[in-house]
Amino acid sequence: MLKKSLFLMASFAAAATFAPAQLVQTKPTTPDQEEFPRLVVVVSIDQFRGDYYDRFRKYFGTKGFVRLTSPGRFFENCHYQHANTITGPGHATMLTGTYAHMNGITANAWFDPVNGQTYCVADPGAKFLTSDGVADSAEGEDAAASPSRLLAPTVGDVLETATGGKAKTISISTKDRAAILMGGRSCDIAVWWRSELGEFVSSDYYGTQQPQWLIDFNKTKSGEKWFKKPWELSLEPAAYEEMCTIDDYPTEGTGGYSSRTFPHLIGEKSEKPDKAYYDNLNMSPYANELIVDAAIAAMQKGELGRDSIPDLLTLSFSSNDLIGHTFGPDSWEVMDATIRTDKTIERLLQALDDEVGSGRWTLFLTADHGVANFPEVLKERRQDAGRANMKEFREGIEKKLTEVYGPLADNKSYIVSVNQPWITLRKPENPAAGSPDCNKVVADYLNTLPFIGFATTTVDLLSTPVNGDVLRQSFIYAHYPNRSGDVVFALKPHYYFSSGTGTTHGSPWRYDQHVPLFVCGKGIGPGRSSFPVAPPQIAPTIAIMLQIPLPAKVEVMPLPGVLTNRM
To answer: What is the pLDDT of residue 142?
Structure first.
Protein backbone atom coordinates (compact mmCIF):
# COMPACT_ATOMS: atom_id res chain seq x y z
CA MET A 1 0.00 0.00 0.00
CA LEU A 2 2.82 2.38 0.86
CA LYS A 3 4.59 1.69 -2.43
CA LYS A 4 1.37 2.41 -4.31
CA SER A 5 0.94 5.68 -2.42
CA LEU A 6 4.49 6.75 -3.19
CA PHE A 7 3.98 5.92 -6.86
CA LEU A 8 0.87 8.10 -6.93
CA MET A 9 2.78 10.89 -5.24
CA ALA A 10 5.48 10.68 -7.88
CA SER A 11 2.78 11.05 -10.52
CA PHE A 12 1.39 14.11 -8.73
CA ALA A 13 4.90 15.57 -8.50
CA ALA A 14 5.38 15.23 -12.23
CA ALA A 15 2.00 16.79 -12.95
CA ALA A 16 2.49 19.66 -10.52
CA THR A 17 5.95 20.78 -11.61
CA PHE A 18 5.98 24.25 -13.14
CA ALA A 19 8.81 26.58 -14.00
CA PRO A 20 9.09 29.67 -11.77
CA ALA A 21 8.29 31.93 -14.71
CA GLN A 22 4.96 30.16 -15.16
CA LEU A 23 4.11 30.56 -11.50
CA VAL A 24 4.42 34.33 -11.35
CA GLN A 25 1.58 36.43 -12.73
CA THR A 26 2.73 39.85 -13.88
CA LYS A 27 -0.80 41.32 -13.98
CA PRO A 28 -3.01 40.03 -11.20
CA THR A 29 -6.60 40.92 -11.91
CA THR A 30 -9.64 40.33 -9.71
CA PRO A 31 -9.47 37.67 -6.96
CA ASP A 32 -11.84 35.40 -8.90
CA GLN A 33 -9.55 35.49 -11.95
CA GLU A 34 -6.34 34.80 -10.07
CA GLU A 35 -5.07 31.26 -10.39
CA PHE A 36 -4.02 30.75 -6.77
CA PRO A 37 -4.19 32.49 -3.38
CA ARG A 38 -1.65 35.25 -2.75
CA LEU A 39 -1.19 34.14 0.86
CA VAL A 40 -1.51 30.65 2.30
CA VAL A 41 -1.79 30.50 6.10
CA VAL A 42 -1.31 27.30 8.11
CA VAL A 43 -2.43 27.47 11.75
CA SER A 44 -1.66 24.82 14.35
CA ILE A 45 -3.43 24.99 17.70
CA ASP A 46 -1.20 23.03 20.04
CA GLN A 47 -3.18 20.28 21.84
CA PHE A 48 -6.52 21.05 20.19
CA ARG A 49 -8.23 17.68 20.41
CA GLY A 50 -10.51 16.56 17.60
CA ASP A 51 -13.72 16.63 19.65
CA TYR A 52 -13.36 20.21 20.89
CA TYR A 53 -15.06 21.83 17.89
CA ASP A 54 -18.35 19.96 18.26
CA ARG A 55 -18.14 19.88 22.04
CA PHE A 56 -17.92 23.66 22.47
CA ARG A 57 -19.53 24.80 19.21
CA LYS A 58 -22.70 26.19 20.78
CA TYR A 59 -20.55 28.81 22.52
CA PHE A 60 -18.70 29.91 19.37
CA GLY A 61 -19.57 32.97 17.33
CA THR A 62 -20.23 32.81 13.59
CA LYS A 63 -16.98 34.38 12.38
CA GLY A 64 -14.30 32.14 13.90
CA PHE A 65 -14.31 28.34 13.78
CA VAL A 66 -17.82 28.32 12.31
CA ARG A 67 -16.63 30.46 9.39
CA LEU A 68 -14.00 27.80 8.74
CA THR A 69 -16.83 25.32 8.11
CA SER A 70 -19.05 27.62 6.06
CA PRO A 71 -17.83 28.77 3.59
CA GLY A 72 -14.89 26.56 4.54
CA ARG A 73 -14.53 22.79 4.77
CA PHE A 74 -14.22 20.75 7.98
CA PHE A 75 -12.62 17.30 8.08
CA GLU A 76 -14.00 15.75 11.25
CA ASN A 77 -12.23 12.39 10.82
CA CYS A 78 -8.63 13.64 10.86
CA HIS A 79 -6.08 11.46 12.65
CA TYR A 80 -2.30 11.27 12.77
CA GLN A 81 -1.02 7.85 11.80
CA HIS A 82 2.14 8.00 13.90
CA ALA A 83 2.71 6.93 17.51
CA ASN A 84 4.78 9.91 18.67
CA THR A 85 1.92 12.38 19.17
CA ILE A 86 3.90 15.29 20.60
CA THR A 87 4.78 18.82 19.50
CA GLY A 88 7.97 18.28 17.49
CA PRO A 89 6.79 15.35 15.36
CA GLY A 90 3.33 16.85 14.91
CA HIS A 91 4.59 20.16 13.55
CA ALA A 92 7.20 18.42 11.39
CA THR A 93 4.52 16.44 9.52
CA MET A 94 2.21 19.27 8.46
CA LEU A 95 4.35 21.05 5.89
CA THR A 96 6.66 18.16 4.88
CA GLY A 97 3.86 15.69 4.14
CA THR A 98 5.85 13.00 5.95
CA TYR A 99 6.15 11.19 9.26
CA ALA A 100 9.30 10.80 11.37
CA HIS A 101 10.56 7.78 9.42
CA MET A 102 11.08 10.25 6.56
CA ASN A 103 11.64 13.63 8.25
CA GLY A 104 13.74 12.45 11.23
CA ILE A 105 11.82 14.27 13.99
CA THR A 106 11.06 11.28 16.21
CA ALA A 107 10.37 13.22 19.42
CA ASN A 108 10.88 16.61 21.05
CA ALA A 109 14.22 15.15 22.17
CA TRP A 110 15.97 11.86 21.53
CA PHE A 111 19.17 10.05 22.44
CA ASP A 112 21.81 10.32 19.76
CA PRO A 113 24.68 7.80 19.99
CA VAL A 114 27.20 10.52 19.12
CA ASN A 115 25.77 13.66 20.72
CA GLY A 116 23.78 12.17 23.59
CA GLN A 117 20.40 13.64 24.52
CA THR A 118 19.43 15.93 21.65
CA TYR A 119 16.65 18.51 21.36
CA CYS A 120 14.83 18.34 18.02
CA VAL A 121 15.79 21.86 16.87
CA ALA A 122 19.04 22.17 18.81
CA ASP A 123 21.91 23.77 16.91
CA PRO A 124 25.12 24.15 18.97
CA GLY A 125 26.50 26.59 16.42
CA ALA A 126 23.49 28.89 16.43
CA LYS A 127 23.01 32.13 18.34
CA PHE A 128 19.92 34.11 19.20
CA LEU A 129 18.80 36.82 16.82
CA THR A 130 17.20 39.60 18.88
CA SER A 131 16.03 43.09 17.97
CA ASP A 132 19.50 44.31 18.93
CA GLY A 133 21.28 41.77 16.73
CA VAL A 134 23.06 38.49 17.35
CA ALA A 135 23.28 37.39 21.00
CA ASP A 136 24.90 34.44 22.77
CA SER A 137 22.86 31.29 23.17
CA ALA A 138 21.62 29.66 26.37
CA GLU A 139 21.78 26.00 27.34
CA GLY A 140 19.62 22.93 26.60
CA GLU A 141 16.10 23.38 25.23
CA ASP A 142 16.41 27.10 25.94
CA ALA A 143 19.29 27.46 23.49
CA ALA A 144 19.19 29.06 20.06
CA ALA A 145 17.99 26.68 17.40
CA SER A 146 17.61 25.94 13.70
CA PRO A 147 15.94 23.43 11.34
CA SER A 148 19.23 21.58 10.78
CA ARG A 149 17.83 18.32 12.20
CA LEU A 150 14.74 18.35 9.97
CA LEU A 151 15.51 15.86 7.18
CA ALA A 152 12.63 16.51 4.78
CA PRO A 153 11.81 19.69 2.85
CA THR A 154 8.63 21.64 3.59
CA VAL A 155 6.23 23.12 1.08
CA GLY A 156 7.70 26.49 2.06
CA ASP A 157 11.14 25.28 0.98
CA VAL A 158 9.72 24.29 -2.40
CA LEU A 159 7.87 27.60 -2.73
CA GLU A 160 11.10 29.52 -2.14
CA THR A 161 12.85 27.49 -4.84
CA ALA A 162 9.96 27.69 -7.32
CA THR A 163 9.83 31.50 -7.04
CA GLY A 164 13.56 32.04 -7.07
CA GLY A 165 13.47 33.19 -3.45
CA LYS A 166 10.86 35.88 -4.17
CA ALA A 167 8.11 34.32 -2.07
CA LYS A 168 7.89 35.56 1.51
CA THR A 169 7.76 32.71 4.05
CA ILE A 170 7.36 33.50 7.76
CA SER A 171 6.70 31.22 10.74
CA ILE A 172 5.59 32.43 14.20
CA SER A 173 4.98 30.66 17.53
CA THR A 174 5.74 30.98 21.20
CA LYS A 175 7.58 27.60 20.91
CA ASP A 176 10.80 27.47 18.93
CA ARG A 177 10.26 23.90 17.69
CA ALA A 178 6.78 24.72 16.40
CA ALA A 179 7.92 27.76 14.42
CA ILE A 180 11.09 26.15 13.09
CA LEU A 181 9.64 22.81 12.03
CA MET A 182 6.69 24.42 10.24
CA GLY A 183 8.95 26.95 8.55
CA GLY A 184 11.54 24.53 7.18
CA ARG A 185 15.09 25.18 6.05
CA SER A 186 14.45 27.95 3.51
CA CYS A 187 11.99 29.99 5.57
CA ASP A 188 12.77 33.71 5.46
CA ILE A 189 12.51 33.73 9.23
CA ALA A 190 11.05 31.60 12.03
CA VAL A 191 10.41 33.51 15.26
CA TRP A 192 9.43 32.44 18.75
CA TRP A 193 8.80 34.09 22.10
CA ARG A 194 11.55 34.44 24.68
CA SER A 195 10.16 35.29 28.12
CA GLU A 196 13.53 36.40 29.48
CA LEU A 197 13.57 39.25 26.94
CA GLY A 198 9.86 39.86 26.52
CA GLU A 199 10.14 39.76 22.74
CA PHE A 200 10.13 37.50 19.71
CA VAL A 201 13.56 36.15 18.82
CA SER A 202 15.02 34.01 16.09
CA SER A 203 18.35 32.42 15.22
CA ASP A 204 21.31 33.66 13.23
CA TYR A 205 20.62 30.65 10.97
CA TYR A 206 18.15 33.01 9.28
CA GLY A 207 20.51 35.97 9.02
CA THR A 208 22.36 38.56 11.06
CA GLN A 209 19.46 40.98 11.55
CA GLN A 210 15.76 40.62 12.23
CA PRO A 211 13.47 41.96 9.49
CA GLN A 212 12.35 45.52 10.11
CA TRP A 213 8.70 44.54 10.67
CA LEU A 214 9.76 42.34 13.60
CA ILE A 215 12.13 44.93 15.06
CA ASP A 216 9.34 47.50 14.93
CA PHE A 217 6.86 45.08 16.46
CA ASN A 218 9.16 44.18 19.35
CA LYS A 219 9.61 47.89 20.08
CA THR A 220 5.87 48.22 20.73
CA LYS A 221 6.21 45.91 23.76
CA SER A 222 2.90 44.39 22.79
CA GLY A 223 3.39 41.56 25.26
CA GLU A 224 3.11 43.94 28.22
CA LYS A 225 -0.52 44.94 27.66
CA TRP A 226 -1.88 42.02 29.70
CA PHE A 227 0.18 42.82 32.81
CA LYS A 228 -2.04 42.49 35.90
CA LYS A 229 -4.98 41.64 33.67
CA PRO A 230 -7.25 38.92 35.10
CA TRP A 231 -8.13 35.90 33.02
CA GLU A 232 -11.83 35.75 33.79
CA LEU A 233 -14.61 33.51 32.57
CA SER A 234 -16.14 34.40 29.21
CA LEU A 235 -19.51 32.91 30.17
CA GLU A 236 -21.64 32.49 33.27
CA PRO A 237 -20.38 29.75 35.65
CA ALA A 238 -23.44 27.59 34.88
CA ALA A 239 -22.14 26.94 31.35
CA TYR A 240 -18.90 25.49 32.68
CA GLU A 241 -20.68 23.50 35.37
CA GLU A 242 -22.73 21.84 32.63
CA MET A 243 -19.75 20.97 30.40
CA CYS A 244 -16.82 20.43 32.77
CA THR A 245 -15.61 18.99 36.04
CA ILE A 246 -15.54 21.28 39.08
CA ASP A 247 -13.28 24.33 38.78
CA ASP A 248 -11.11 23.13 41.68
CA TYR A 249 -10.63 19.54 40.50
CA PRO A 250 -8.08 17.85 42.81
CA THR A 251 -5.61 16.66 40.14
CA GLU A 252 -5.37 19.99 38.33
CA GLY A 253 -2.11 21.89 38.64
CA THR A 254 -1.76 25.61 39.19
CA GLY A 255 0.53 26.45 36.27
CA GLY A 256 2.30 29.25 38.13
CA TYR A 257 -0.91 30.84 39.38
CA SER A 258 -1.78 31.05 43.06
CA SER A 259 -4.80 28.74 42.75
CA ARG A 260 -6.58 26.29 40.46
CA THR A 261 -9.73 28.41 40.24
CA PHE A 262 -10.85 31.46 38.29
CA PRO A 263 -9.97 34.25 37.99
CA HIS A 264 -6.25 33.93 37.20
CA LEU A 265 -4.25 37.15 37.46
CA ILE A 266 -1.55 37.51 34.77
CA GLY A 267 1.65 38.60 36.51
CA GLU A 268 0.24 38.29 40.02
CA LYS A 269 3.71 37.59 41.49
CA SER A 270 5.55 40.21 39.45
CA GLU A 271 6.18 43.89 40.11
CA LYS A 272 6.82 44.55 36.43
CA PRO A 273 6.67 42.54 33.19
CA ASP A 274 9.32 39.87 33.78
CA LYS A 275 9.84 36.18 33.08
CA ALA A 276 7.32 35.14 35.72
CA TYR A 277 4.73 37.45 34.15
CA TYR A 278 5.39 36.10 30.66
CA ASP A 279 5.17 32.54 31.98
CA ASN A 280 1.69 33.45 33.30
CA LEU A 281 0.88 34.99 29.92
CA ASN A 282 1.87 31.80 28.11
CA MET A 283 -0.43 29.89 30.49
CA SER A 284 -3.36 32.00 29.30
CA PRO A 285 -5.27 32.41 26.03
CA TYR A 286 -3.92 35.97 25.73
CA ALA A 287 -0.62 34.66 24.36
CA ASN A 288 -2.51 33.52 21.26
CA GLU A 289 -3.53 37.15 20.80
CA LEU A 290 0.16 38.03 20.86
CA ILE A 291 0.78 35.60 17.99
CA VAL A 292 -1.97 37.26 15.95
CA ASP A 293 -0.54 40.69 16.78
CA ALA A 294 2.78 39.57 15.30
CA ALA A 295 1.04 37.98 12.30
CA ILE A 296 -0.78 41.24 11.53
CA ALA A 297 2.53 43.11 11.74
CA ALA A 298 4.00 40.61 9.27
CA MET A 299 1.07 41.18 6.92
CA GLN A 300 1.22 44.95 7.16
CA LYS A 301 4.92 45.78 7.24
CA GLY A 302 6.17 42.46 5.88
CA GLU A 303 3.73 42.94 2.99
CA LEU A 304 2.50 39.36 2.87
CA GLY A 305 0.15 38.59 0.01
CA ARG A 306 0.62 41.99 -1.63
CA ASP A 307 2.17 41.06 -4.99
CA SER A 308 1.66 38.45 -7.70
CA ILE A 309 3.88 35.88 -5.99
CA PRO A 310 2.20 33.66 -3.37
CA ASP A 311 3.50 33.85 0.20
CA LEU A 312 3.29 31.45 3.15
CA LEU A 313 2.59 32.29 6.81
CA THR A 314 2.60 29.55 9.46
CA LEU A 315 1.35 30.13 13.00
CA SER A 316 1.29 27.87 16.05
CA PHE A 317 -0.76 28.74 19.14
CA SER A 318 1.07 27.08 22.03
CA SER A 319 -0.92 28.33 25.01
CA ASN A 320 -3.70 25.78 24.55
CA ASP A 321 -1.12 23.05 25.16
CA LEU A 322 0.24 24.56 28.36
CA ILE A 323 -3.27 25.14 29.69
CA GLY A 324 -4.37 21.63 28.75
CA HIS A 325 -1.38 19.94 30.39
CA THR A 326 -2.01 21.75 33.66
CA PHE A 327 -5.79 21.81 33.96
CA GLY A 328 -6.91 18.91 31.74
CA PRO A 329 -9.41 18.68 28.86
CA ASP A 330 -12.46 18.63 31.18
CA SER A 331 -11.48 21.84 32.96
CA TRP A 332 -13.06 25.28 32.99
CA GLU A 333 -9.71 26.64 31.79
CA VAL A 334 -9.61 24.50 28.63
CA MET A 335 -13.24 25.31 27.83
CA ASP A 336 -12.69 29.05 28.30
CA ALA A 337 -9.41 28.99 26.37
CA THR A 338 -11.19 27.24 23.49
CA ILE A 339 -13.97 29.84 23.45
CA ARG A 340 -11.39 32.62 23.49
CA THR A 341 -9.41 30.88 20.73
CA ASP A 342 -12.55 31.08 18.60
CA LYS A 343 -12.44 34.88 19.01
CA THR A 344 -8.73 34.86 18.18
CA ILE A 345 -9.40 32.96 14.95
CA GLU A 346 -12.16 35.44 14.11
CA ARG A 347 -9.69 38.29 14.54
CA LEU A 348 -7.12 36.53 12.35
CA LEU A 349 -9.65 35.91 9.57
CA GLN A 350 -10.78 39.54 9.66
CA ALA A 351 -7.15 40.68 9.46
CA LEU A 352 -6.63 38.50 6.40
CA ASP A 353 -9.64 40.12 4.73
CA ASP A 354 -8.43 43.59 5.70
CA GLU A 355 -4.73 43.25 4.93
CA VAL A 356 -4.61 40.70 2.09
CA GLY A 357 -8.12 40.93 0.71
CA SER A 358 -11.11 38.62 0.68
CA GLY A 359 -10.66 35.99 -2.01
CA ARG A 360 -6.87 36.32 -2.00
CA TRP A 361 -5.97 33.96 0.85
CA THR A 362 -6.46 30.33 1.90
CA LEU A 363 -6.13 29.09 5.47
CA PHE A 364 -5.55 25.58 6.84
CA LEU A 365 -6.11 24.98 10.55
CA THR A 366 -5.26 21.81 12.48
CA ALA A 367 -3.44 20.67 15.63
CA ASP A 368 -0.24 18.80 16.40
CA HIS A 369 -1.88 16.25 18.74
CA GLY A 370 -4.75 15.66 21.14
CA VAL A 371 -4.63 14.91 24.88
CA ALA A 372 -5.67 12.34 27.47
CA ASN A 373 -8.44 12.86 30.02
CA PHE A 374 -7.52 12.76 33.69
CA PRO A 375 -7.60 9.09 34.79
CA GLU A 376 -9.55 10.15 37.87
CA VAL A 377 -12.35 11.53 35.68
CA LEU A 378 -12.52 8.28 33.70
CA LYS A 379 -12.47 6.17 36.85
CA GLU A 380 -15.52 8.07 38.06
CA ARG A 381 -17.20 6.71 34.92
CA ARG A 382 -15.99 3.15 35.71
CA GLN A 383 -13.34 3.12 32.96
CA ASP A 384 -9.90 1.53 33.16
CA ALA A 385 -7.37 4.36 33.54
CA GLY A 386 -4.43 5.31 35.71
CA ARG A 387 -1.17 7.13 36.29
CA ALA A 388 2.13 5.25 36.06
CA ASN A 389 5.29 6.14 37.95
CA MET A 390 8.34 6.70 35.73
CA LYS A 391 10.81 6.17 38.57
CA GLU A 392 9.30 2.79 39.41
CA PHE A 393 9.15 1.94 35.71
CA ARG A 394 12.87 2.52 35.26
CA GLU A 395 13.75 0.78 38.50
CA GLY A 396 11.80 -2.31 37.41
CA ILE A 397 13.73 -2.51 34.13
CA GLU A 398 17.06 -2.06 35.92
CA LYS A 399 16.16 -4.77 38.44
CA LYS A 400 15.17 -7.23 35.71
CA LEU A 401 18.35 -6.71 33.71
CA THR A 402 20.49 -6.97 36.83
CA GLU A 403 18.81 -10.28 37.68
CA VAL A 404 19.60 -11.65 34.22
CA TYR A 405 23.06 -10.22 33.57
CA GLY A 406 24.36 -8.91 36.88
CA PRO A 407 25.25 -5.30 37.71
CA LEU A 408 27.22 -3.13 35.33
CA ALA A 409 30.65 -1.82 36.32
CA ASP A 410 30.86 1.52 38.14
CA ASN A 411 27.17 1.28 39.07
CA LYS A 412 26.14 2.30 35.57
CA SER A 413 22.49 2.08 34.62
CA TYR A 414 21.30 -0.26 31.91
CA ILE A 415 18.89 2.44 30.79
CA VAL A 416 20.55 5.17 28.76
CA SER A 417 17.38 7.02 27.85
CA VAL A 418 13.59 6.82 27.92
CA ASN A 419 12.05 9.06 25.27
CA GLN A 420 8.60 7.70 24.61
CA PRO A 421 7.98 5.52 22.76
CA TRP A 422 11.65 4.49 22.80
CA ILE A 423 14.03 3.01 25.38
CA THR A 424 17.76 3.06 24.66
CA LEU A 425 19.84 0.50 26.58
CA ARG A 426 23.43 -0.03 27.59
CA LYS A 427 24.31 -3.60 26.71
CA PRO A 428 25.48 -6.20 29.28
CA GLU A 429 29.21 -6.60 29.82
CA ASN A 430 30.60 -9.99 28.80
CA PRO A 431 27.31 -11.89 28.77
CA ALA A 432 27.54 -15.66 29.08
CA ALA A 433 27.26 -17.75 25.94
CA GLY A 434 23.64 -18.27 25.03
CA SER A 435 22.43 -15.33 27.12
CA PRO A 436 19.10 -13.89 25.98
CA ASP A 437 19.00 -10.71 23.92
CA CYS A 438 19.00 -7.71 26.26
CA ASN A 439 16.39 -5.83 24.25
CA LYS A 440 14.04 -8.81 24.20
CA VAL A 441 14.41 -9.27 27.94
CA VAL A 442 13.14 -5.73 28.45
CA ALA A 443 10.31 -6.05 25.93
CA ASP A 444 9.15 -9.32 27.49
CA TYR A 445 9.32 -7.80 30.96
CA LEU A 446 7.30 -4.75 29.90
CA ASN A 447 4.56 -6.98 28.53
CA THR A 448 4.06 -8.40 32.04
CA LEU A 449 3.25 -4.97 33.51
CA PRO A 450 -0.46 -4.28 33.98
CA PHE A 451 -0.34 -0.77 32.47
CA ILE A 452 1.57 -1.65 29.27
CA GLY A 453 -0.40 -1.88 26.04
CA PHE A 454 2.38 -2.71 23.59
CA ALA A 455 6.10 -3.51 23.76
CA THR A 456 8.59 -5.10 21.42
CA THR A 457 12.16 -4.69 20.24
CA THR A 458 12.93 -2.27 17.47
CA VAL A 459 14.42 -5.13 15.44
CA ASP A 460 11.13 -7.04 15.70
CA LEU A 461 9.15 -3.89 14.90
CA LEU A 462 11.01 -3.31 11.64
CA SER A 463 11.31 -6.95 10.54
CA THR A 464 7.76 -8.19 11.15
CA PRO A 465 5.22 -7.69 8.33
CA VAL A 466 2.58 -5.13 9.24
CA ASN A 467 -0.33 -7.06 7.70
CA GLY A 468 -2.82 -4.31 8.46
CA ASP A 469 -1.71 -3.80 12.07
CA VAL A 470 -2.24 -0.03 12.36
CA LEU A 471 -0.68 0.09 15.83
CA ARG A 472 2.55 -1.49 14.63
CA GLN A 473 2.51 0.76 11.57
CA SER A 474 2.20 3.83 13.80
CA PHE A 475 5.48 2.92 15.51
CA ILE A 476 7.20 2.28 12.18
CA TYR A 477 6.18 5.78 11.09
CA ALA A 478 7.74 7.08 14.34
CA HIS A 479 11.12 5.40 13.82
CA TYR A 480 14.29 6.88 12.36
CA PRO A 481 17.76 5.22 12.62
CA ASN A 482 19.96 6.57 15.44
CA ARG A 483 17.09 8.77 16.63
CA SER A 484 14.96 6.02 18.09
CA GLY A 485 15.87 3.30 20.59
CA ASP A 486 16.25 -0.42 21.19
CA VAL A 487 12.79 -1.10 22.63
CA VAL A 488 9.48 0.48 21.68
CA PHE A 489 6.46 0.59 24.00
CA ALA A 490 3.12 2.21 24.73
CA LEU A 491 1.07 2.36 27.90
CA LYS A 492 -2.51 1.07 27.79
CA PRO A 493 -5.17 3.54 26.67
CA HIS A 494 -5.92 6.16 29.33
CA TYR A 495 -2.68 5.44 31.23
CA TYR A 496 0.28 7.79 31.26
CA PHE A 497 3.34 8.63 33.34
CA SER A 498 2.51 11.32 35.87
CA SER A 499 3.61 12.68 39.22
CA GLY A 500 -0.02 13.06 40.30
CA THR A 501 -1.42 16.19 38.65
CA GLY A 502 -2.09 17.35 35.12
CA THR A 503 -2.28 15.32 31.94
CA THR A 504 -0.26 14.65 28.80
CA HIS A 505 -0.25 13.15 25.31
CA GLY A 506 2.17 11.16 23.16
CA SER A 507 0.39 7.83 22.81
CA PRO A 508 -0.69 5.98 19.62
CA TRP A 509 -4.32 5.96 20.81
CA ARG A 510 -7.08 7.84 19.06
CA TYR A 511 -7.61 10.57 21.66
CA ASP A 512 -4.01 11.69 21.05
CA GLN A 513 -4.15 11.20 17.27
CA HIS A 514 -7.52 12.86 16.62
CA VAL A 515 -7.34 16.54 15.61
CA PRO A 516 -9.58 18.83 13.56
CA LEU A 517 -8.68 19.99 10.07
CA PHE A 518 -10.32 23.05 8.51
CA VAL A 519 -9.67 24.62 5.10
CA CYS A 520 -11.14 28.02 4.25
CA GLY A 521 -10.59 30.70 1.64
CA LYS A 522 -9.98 30.99 -2.07
CA GLY A 523 -11.24 28.06 -4.09
CA ILE A 524 -12.54 26.09 -1.09
CA GLY A 525 -16.13 24.90 -1.19
CA PRO A 526 -18.21 24.51 1.99
CA GLY A 527 -18.90 21.20 3.62
CA ARG A 528 -18.20 18.73 6.37
CA SER A 529 -16.39 15.53 5.49
CA SER A 530 -16.10 12.26 7.43
CA PHE A 531 -13.59 10.88 4.93
CA PRO A 532 -10.42 9.78 6.81
CA VAL A 533 -7.57 12.28 6.40
CA ALA A 534 -4.35 13.23 8.19
CA PRO A 535 -2.51 16.55 8.77
CA PRO A 536 0.46 15.65 6.50
CA GLN A 537 -1.99 15.92 3.58
CA ILE A 538 -1.86 19.69 4.00
CA ALA A 539 1.56 19.82 2.29
CA PRO A 540 0.68 18.25 -1.08
CA THR A 541 -2.63 20.14 -1.10
CA ILE A 542 -0.82 23.48 -0.82
CA ALA A 543 1.76 22.49 -3.42
CA ILE A 544 -0.83 21.56 -6.01
CA MET A 545 -2.93 24.61 -5.12
CA LEU A 546 0.08 26.89 -5.76
CA GLN A 547 1.16 24.91 -8.86
CA ILE A 548 4.60 24.09 -7.49
CA PRO A 549 6.38 20.71 -7.12
CA LEU A 550 5.56 18.54 -4.15
CA PRO A 551 8.10 18.49 -1.29
CA ALA A 552 10.53 15.72 -2.20
CA LYS A 553 9.55 13.18 0.48
CA VAL A 554 5.77 13.62 0.48
CA GLU A 555 4.16 10.23 1.17
CA VAL A 556 0.45 11.11 1.35
CA MET A 557 -2.29 12.18 -1.04
CA PRO A 558 -3.73 15.72 -1.11
CA LEU A 559 -6.90 16.37 0.86
CA PRO A 560 -9.93 14.98 -0.98
CA GLY A 561 -12.40 17.45 -2.39
CA VAL A 562 -10.37 20.56 -1.57
CA LEU A 563 -8.83 21.09 -5.00
CA THR A 564 -11.85 20.19 -7.14
CA ASN A 565 -13.39 23.66 -6.80
CA ARG A 566 -10.19 25.62 -7.04
CA MET A 567 -9.65 28.70 -9.16
So the answer is: 64
